[in-house]
Amino acid sequence: MASEVLMPALSPTMTEGKIARWVKNVGEPVHAGDVLAEIETDKATMEVEAVDEGVLAKIVIPEGTDHVPINTPIAVIAENGEDVREAEAKRRPAPAQNKVPDAKAPEAKAPVPPDQEAEPTPPRPAIRDGAVAAPPRPPPAPAADPGEYTGKTVTQTVREALRDAIAEEMRRDNSVFLLGEEVAEYQGAYKVSQGLLQEFGPRRVIDTPITEQGFAGLGIGAAFAGLRPIVEFMTFNFAMQAMDQLINSAAKTRYMSGGQMAAPIVFRGPNGIASRVAAQHSQCYASWYAHVPGLKVVAPYTGADYKGLLKSAIRDPNPVIFLEHELVYGESFAVPEDPEFLVPIGKARIARPGDHVTITAFSRMVKLALQAAEELEKAGISAEVIDLRSLRPFDVEAVAESVKKTNRIVSVEEGWPFAAIGSEIAAIVMEECFDWLDAPLKRVAGKDVPLPYAANLERLAVPQVEDIVAAAREVAYR
Amino acid sequence: MAVARKPNRVKPADAQISAETLKRWYADMLLIRRFEERAGQMYGMGLIGGFCHLYIGQEAVVVGVQAALQEGDTIITSYRDHGHMLACGMDPKGVMSELTGRRCGYSHGKGGSMHMFSPEKNFFGGHGIVGAQVPIGTGLAFAHRYRDDGRISVTYLGDGAINQGQVYESFNMASLWKLPVVYVIENNRYGMGTSVSRASARTDLYHRGVAYGIPGEQVDGMDVVAVNEAALEAAEHARAGQGPIIVEMLTYRYRGHSMSDPAKYRTKDEVNRMRTEHDPIDHLRQRLLDEYSAREDELKQIEKRARDIVIEAAQFAQDCPEPDPSELWTDVLAEA
Minimal CA–CA distance to B73: which of B195, B236, B220, B200? Predict the structure, then answer.
């Protein structure tokens, strides 16, 4: 009996991938453990190994094909002696839940801000086999708000925007360098630093050992000496190992030295939940860092903000904690191309104007808040979504102004609810615009538990669109 | 790889060291001693608060090492830092004013004893968390290498810090990348109240870099000439691009860990023996008299000068006003 080889999920966040290369040819014998193909995921290039013995009977998806959803049949392996054609004929249909979308399904367009010249969507490699159509791209992300920017934009993913920000700043300033685990030869654990080693060489793109406290402190020392390090934490979960250096050495030294010395340094990496990686690898540290004087803390959502804020962070004379989100790395936005495009730290952004309720969010939760706003619109509730972007300094005015207009507020964050960013917003609203409130503030936050692994429990633990909708309706009494 | 315990230098290998140099070191050590004694006294008078860790007994280490360095080499240490600052050429008035928490202090009164800095004098602190200065000092070395400026980082740490994990993270990176750093372990035999033998599986600390390919040497840290000789070799090693090196200085602090430490973990006898038999300042004084035919009156002159500088600094540090209340809000962040 022939067996199908399915497109494997090679990382917790992978939904699709590219068949980079077939290592085996049709007709070649296959043993368990043989490498069949190389697949590019959202993070890396991986090898797909055979599980079954037999002969490679058919390659269903030719090499070079991108956006192949996981669980799509990509090849057929016939049992030894089995007729290949017969095997092909007996091939099971793909399971219903993994049905490949119709080839004629209209392509979702990459988002382009209304006032921008539409950039042509990059052509996708042709599907030569015809058996499988290209899947649609992920649902269109809300357009970046380029603010007053009127220059050229390019549609790119957040990881590309981050890479460009780093590359541009490294070209601009020779004292900027990138330090972290797997940033150089591996090209970034999340592929953010792709190509940087090739352009800037190993003097300025430096792979470290797995030694967070050590390389955080080393970066701070280099910053004290006047360099401008960008220190990548593979994820902020690992930055807890370096917490003493971040707080006691980076944040406090300007003050303790009477302004003589400081660390112009960026600590960046993914923060918040990932996907099914459970408690030790899924945590939002926003409120931890936002608590500390001497730090700046940003957590953008759009590609334009990722780029513009990272560039501002690199140029900033203070230590900046730059919180990224793994689940947003692959999302596409219109991103300004101008190397002088900067987003100021400390300014929130109205992601969607509205009149009836204010929803504050940062990082990936902005996306959910915008989706919730669309739902609310259907119910006749006009929600104003504020993308906080910066958590320290915090744009008190933006939140207060919005609440004075809508008289109601919901705060959304992935992190735990106790002593959280939402708690701070509650205090700010009390202090700044209590008299304008028509309802008590409502917080939507991660559940007060370590993040569980099981898919259903994980979903329950993390804020969902319906939670935001429910909270907004509650404060709107509708 | 050279990991060696050098014999205590009974006779100085100092044919080339001039009497002038030795007298300068004598003056430098005396200044630290007098400064620290005065700081201790002022602490007792309530003029200095908080933690105050005195360097008395260890003066030969920093004076001998600093004399081996070149302009532009960078220095970093822990919280027992007053001696290092004076040896770096920082103004005793500014240091003492920081101890008294006054606006004329190096940190305008916002850092205190443990947190003082002078990038101008290449002194990068003054760090209050045991061991935290080690990766930072390694980062200073990284910056020297990045700029290829021919300078080295001298990173001081104590026998207490040597058991912190980040020290080994630093050793590994420094050796991996051949960074120009000299790690000076000031082994004063007690990490707060715990003797080295109660804290460390092996009491010799100079071999702690063996696993990372870092050579080490043990030196009599009560002998400024021996310290200087070892520091010269170590600095040359680091400067020549051979990577990090460890120098363990066997030394002793006469006072408690901090001002509030009654030091009941060691006998009076032990302290007295060190003071009478191994005092680095007495030792050098005797040598100057015996071997360099220094005159008693010129040494007295040096002693008077040290005392005068300290008296002046102490007065200055009491006369200078406290920081303006507006200073509370300054120096948190710089304007972007």
Answer: B236
Q: Rounded to whole angstroms, how far apart are CA atoms A418 and A423? A: 7
Q: Are A215 and A233 in contact (CB under 8 A)?
A: no
Which residue of chain B has the CA closest to A392? B333
Same domain, A390 and A472: yes
- Do A80 and A170 belong to one domain? no
> Is the pLDDT assigned to residue A215 strictly greater than 90?
yes
pLDDT band at residue A100 using 50, 70 and 90 as cut-offs: very low
CB A304 within 8 A of CB A161: yes
> Rounded to whole angstroms, how far apart are CA atoms B175 and A76?
51
Residue A218 neighbours by CB distance under 10 Å: 34
The residue with greater pLDDT, A29 or A244, is: A244
Q: Position of tokens 């240091």?
A: B95
Residues of B in contact with A213 (CB under 8 A): 135, 165-166, 169
What is the Cα–Cα distance from B230 to A131, expressed in whole angstroms? Answer: 75
Lookup: tokens for B243? 């990577």
3-state class (DSSP) for residue A316: coil
For residue A146, being part of any structural domain is answered with no
Query: Angle at Cα A360 formed by Cα A252 and Cα A465, nearest 5°?
Result: 125
- Does pLDDT of A444 surpass 70? yes
Active site residue A212: yes
- Which tokens go with A21? 């290369």
Q: Which residue has the higher pLDDT, A158 or B2?
A: A158
Nearest chain A residue (CA) to B143: A222
Query: What is the domain extent for residue A309?
Result: 153-336
The helix (H) or strand (E) run that includes residue B62 is helix B59-66
Residue A471: both structure tokens together: 């909270």
Minimal C-alpha gap between A335 and chain B (Å) = 23
Answer yes or no: do A326 and A356 share one domain.
no
Domain with B313 in it: what CATH number?
3.40.50.970
Instruction: Please state the φ and ψ torsions of residue A64, each to the nearest 5 degrees.
Output: 95, -10
Helices (runs of H) and strands (runs of E) counted in chain B = 11, 9
pLDDT at A130 over 70: no
- Of residues A452 and A70, the one with the higher pLDDT is A452
Cβ atoms A272, A128 nearer than 8 A: no
Q: How far apart are the first and last CA of chain A?
A: 59
- Residue A233, classified by CB atoms within 10 Å of its CB into exposed (0-12), middle (13-18) or buried (19+), is buried
CB A388 within 8 A of CB A348: yes
- Contact across the interface for B110 and A248, Cβ inside 8 Å: no
| Structure confidence by residue, pLDDT tens digits, A294-330 | 999 999 999 999 999 999 999 999 999 999 999 999 9
Residues B221 and B250: beta-carbon distance below 8 Å:
yes
A325 tagged catalytic: no
